[in-house]
## 1
Amino acid sequence: MIMVEDRAPIVIPIRASGLSTFLTTMWSNQWALVLPVMTAFLFLLAWQAISVYGNISPTILPPPTMVLDQLTDNFPLIMKHTIPTTYETLLAFGVSIPLGIALAALMVYSTLTYQALYPNIVFFQLIPKIALAPLFIVWLGIGSPSRVTFSIFICFFPILVATAAGLQSVDMNMLRLCRSLRMSDWQILVRVRFPTSPPFIFSGMKVAVTLAIIGIVVGEFIASQRGLGYLILFASSRQQTDLALACIAVLCLVGLVLYGCVVLGEKVVMRLYGVR
């Protein structure tokens, strides 16, 4: 009698097809978008419930529906003050980018310049910024130059530090190879250091764009007759908390758009340099 030995079934692994991989990637991307939207919606829903059923005065905490009404009823007024705030933010951020990158390149190019400038720049950044804002008003007046200069003073530092870190992150073997080819410091800076530093530069820019808005709004709080900061201060003085929150919502939207532009620029530059 012949006995047939039982054997475990052979399992052959099957790779996921291209379609399933595409569907999985698409679902993960959608989930990354849906999750923050759901979180924000639940937050607004809880805010509405607390404001309505908690017997809280609208002066202290207006419900989101009241804020939305203010946003729609006073939309032309809010947009009128949004334009100068956005323009000054873009101007300050635009100036801080070449300023931070140029100073970082200069400090990496020259050790003497690094030793002379970097400690002093760090020292000035350790000073509380809000304490210096009134001085910029005294020095430059109540107009746009004082707010833009104050915003540049705040937001160029992250770009400077991030760019300097990126320029110094080059592999030492690559630098030795460049030295063996008798490349000058300037050639190494332009052809080797800069092409490897965009991820660092854009990391600093993401921080700087938010600080640029803060600098402009703080300047509008102190001395200004236009801008979202002025409108927030004006609404708060009249206990119109719903209008102040509507202006803050617009500020958040402006900041989100500017941050998205920086992220989009980062993707374009990374593709040009072949960095993933």
Note: Residues 1-5 have pLDDT under 50 and may be disordered.
## 2
Amino acid sequence: MLNDNGFFAYFEIMVKRFRILVAFGFVTAMLFIKTSPANAIDFRSDRHAKYKSNEIPVFDTVPPPDVMAVVSVAIKAVNTFDIRAVADLYTPNAVIVDNEPPYSWNGPTAGVQWINAVEKLCQFSSITKLKGVIDPVNVYQVSADDCYIVVPVHFTYVLPGKQGFSDQGAFAFALRWVNGKWLIKSQVWMPQKAMDGDRPN
């Protein structure tokens, strides 16, 4: 999530590996979501509506509030390194991919492991005032049991003796409806630099 050539040069070594992991995460998310926009059903009218296996509603408006509530908690937990906030947000087989070592975390405690890794990186690099702000979402698909959503995020932070830095990108989330609530099945961070197709020097 944090990319600065002066302090994170070792990330460039992992760019190729990271891009492979990112691609894997996106493919994984898309594999379990079957789309048929022409036959879409309005998910918002009835949470327990019956869906055929090849049907999924697709909207171009505001994502469902209950989905946004979950992903917002996950992202904002980074601001305070709040592991309790993410302790129950992930499925038993969840996977998170990000660009701080060890680059991926698995299982129901994936969120806790990820937050801990971000905090360690900040401590190691003397980063302070890390803050993630969610930008407007316009890419998502949702059915009764599955959701795929891309959440643009703008991170800011401060390094010792330096002016503030910023980093933009997006998290791609895949969620499952489990026992009456949304849980995160996969979470992949894509930096703006990677999305723009930039290459390391």
Note: The chain has one domain: 9-41+53-195.
## 3
Amino acid sequence: MMVNKVAIIDNYAPHYRLPLWSALARTRNIEYWFFAFSREANGIKTISQRELLENNIKYKELKNIRFKEIVIWQKGIMKIVLKKDFSHYVFNGDMYCLSTWLAALVLRRSGIKITFWGHGLYGNEWWLKKRIRMLFNKLPTYHLLYGDRAKKLLIRENLNAQNLYVVYNSLDYKLQKRVFYSLKQESLTKTKFEIFQNYENTIIFIGRLTKEKRLDLLIDALNILKAKGIRYNLLLIGEGPETKAIIRKINKYGLDKIKFWGPCYSENIIGELIGLADITVSPGNVGLTAIHSLSFGTPVITHNDFTDQGPEVEIIEDEITGAFFVKEDSMCLANSIQNWFSKNPDSNLKRQRCRMKIDKYYNPDYQISVFNDLILGKVPTD
């Protein structure tokens, strides 16, 4: 039986993709090869050589040459393209990667199938940037997209819907599912008391403590609630350049019940910490945090400007598995938090509801089915 050989070319080898890469590597009748730069950069944890070997992932290293910290050239990619060893090439859909432009143009002339895997359109591009991005988006025949919104935006730009596959995103689905179903309320309550010395409603944030995450808005919101006599616990998991600024603002307002956990990479510990929380609040762009939080049964509050959000925001159902507030409005955020706690007492049903979209779409099994449909030429469903 003929085996399809597919090259997946990424800017990096992000660690969260290991479960997906491993699953793709085990696919029958489709031979997936992976090409990327595996050195950690910009806080991105990458897949180690040991993990690549242990999971039998066919992998070759590329080298990223960066210009002005924005534009990338992937050294070694043209040699791979010119050999034409693959029937299908899947590139990271990053228009700032100049080597992808050239590689795609070369492959187009050869009639070899090309796919871009990425955001497609964000919807907030000014006219020139949008024109350049659409020139880039018209290079491949197919797109693998992180969300349904991106598909709708590309259809508006006259791209063929039959060539647009929504693949969503995923984390370590199997491990997180196992951890979720191992969580016991009695143990979670005990851990909450050990951290805060109380059993009160708890907010959590997990991620890099950066300006883009707008944690200053969350601290402002807690101060607004404090003035009303309303206090919640807050647990911050992560570290980053904004840590000192956040601490200064906390001290300025005289807020208590706020704990810094620091960075954590153990899904067992993260699952317990997210599981004991009543709500995750991500005041800036939410990204993979939405998947992480809902995987452990905890709803998410974030802002409502989808043009400045990660595509994973689509997983949140307003007033069901989370809520939205007006972007950059700390008063609105405070009201959203207060409303959530007044309307949503904790329940096992709510936590199970959070997992529904994870189990249906945001997992490697679903992603593999989309990849295989793409490679084998099955038209995507609406």
Note: Residues 4-170+363-376 form a domain with the Rossmann fold fold (CATH 3.40.50.2000).
## 4
Amino acid sequence: MKFLLDTHVLIWSLQDNHRLSSSARAIIGDTNNIIYVSSATIWEIAIKTSLKKLNLSVDEILQTLQHSEYTQLPITFSHAAKVAELPYHHNDPFDRILIAQALTEELTLITCDDKITQYELSLLLIH
């Protein structure tokens, strides 16, 4: 299967954080699955790091991702245009582009954000 990681899920997976559920760990660790990380996620981490809302090294995250099994998902014109079709249930622009990407690419979004359940997409909600 093909999955897209929400920003928190990526951070938790890279930090081996206890908040990442065992089911999410199993999915991410299963080499039969393709795990995507969006450019939007790196953008969000970079912004929140520069604003001191996150204490992470963007360079370290990029190095880790380059040596991982994660697949980069750039933001395309189609992804950006899909945002216009989304109901306005969620006002976070990063989450909205992830939703658009998941819909466009037919990916299951792994997230801990309850607001995203309002959208009709393949979703794995973790807590």
Note: The domain at 2-125 is CATH 3.40.50.1010 (Rossmann fold).
